[in-house]
Amino acid sequence: QSALTQPPSASGSPGQSVTISCTGTNSDVGGYDYVSWYQQHPGKAPKLIIYEVSKRPSGVPDRFSGSKSGDTASLTVSGLQAEDEADYYCSSFAGHYIGYVFGTGTQVTVL
Amino acid sequence: EVQLMQSGAEVRKPGESLKISCQVSTGYGFTSDWIAWLRQVPGKGLEYMGVIYPGDYDTRYSPSFEGQVTISADKSISTAYLQWSGLKASDTAMYYCARLKGDFWSGYFDYWGQGTLVTVS
């Protein structure tokens, strides 16, 4: 099974927005509304920031939003802040045989 | 609050066996949710390895890891395990356990352990 495709990097100035894409197939992203996003700071465990395409866990700022169209999911970080500088990974259910797949990861830099 | 506490870093030689652990603090029933194992090779992305449902020990593996590792659990001590019988240098990675919230087909990884670094050299 292949990893979901994300751009290797994205960047923006403080206060700007950045959108990260996560492209899969109709066997994963396109086939299920079970896409989640994770933020990982260097040396730390990943943290859930979006689940079920667009839902935010308690405590996650509303600057983080998710969406999906066809086989591509997207994460938008609005009003970029210095602490948003991290790696971001998408994940999707990919069927009972494979289970879950993750994206290749995107490093977000706040300029 | 849910907490997942993983065992400490390990160094092994190729061919050796290893079992690492993930103890889940209750606050919810350990037997009511799936516990997943994920791998992260240094400098690389996250990979899903498999899950176990401690309630009935139902275990499911990613095809990439089937036959390479064994996932198990001990309900009596709320602990999940990841085990190798013959380590390879390519198993060098950080391993995370995480709770898969929800059903197997509709879940997300909401709580994570701190990670266990396994070095095979």
Give a written overview of the molecule:
- With 111 residues, chain A is an all-beta fold.
- In chain A, 0% of the residues lie in helices and 43% in strands.
- In chain A, strands 1, 3, 4, 7, 8 and 9 form a 6-stranded mixed beta sheet that branches. Chain A has a 3-stranded antiparallel beta sheet with strand order 2-6-5, with no helix packed on it.
- In chain A, strand 5 (64-69) and strand 6 (72-77) form a beta hairpin.
- Chain A starts with 8 loop residues before the first strand and ends with a strand.
- The model of chain A has no long low-confidence stretch (mean pLDDT 97).
- In chain B, a hairpin with a 4-residue loop joins strand 7 and strand 8 (79-84).
- Chain B is built from no helices and 11 strands.
- Chain B has strands spanning 3-6, 10-12, 18-25, 34-40, 46-53, 58-61, 70-74, 79-84, 93-101, 108-112, 116-120.
- With 121 residues, chain B is mainly beta.
- In chain B, the strands form 2 sheets. In chain B, strands 2, 4, 5, 6, 9, 10 and 11 form a 7-stranded mixed beta sheet that branches.
- Chains A and B meet through strand 7 and strand 8 of A and strand 5, strand 9 and strand 10 of B.
Q: Could you describe the largest sheet of chain B, including whether it forms a barrel? A: 7 strands, mixed
**Strand fraction band of chain A?**
35-45%
The helix tally of chain B amounts to: 0
Report the helical percentage of chain A: under 10%
What's a quick, concise take on this entry?
The complex is a heterodimer of chains A (111) and B (121). Helices cover 0% and strands 43% of the residues of chain A.
Features of the shown structure:
heterodimer; A: 111 residues; mainly beta; six-stranded mixed β-sheet; three-stranded antiparallel β-sheet; 0% helix; 43% strand; B: 121 residues; seven-stranded mixed β-sheet; four-stranded antiparallel β-sheet; globular
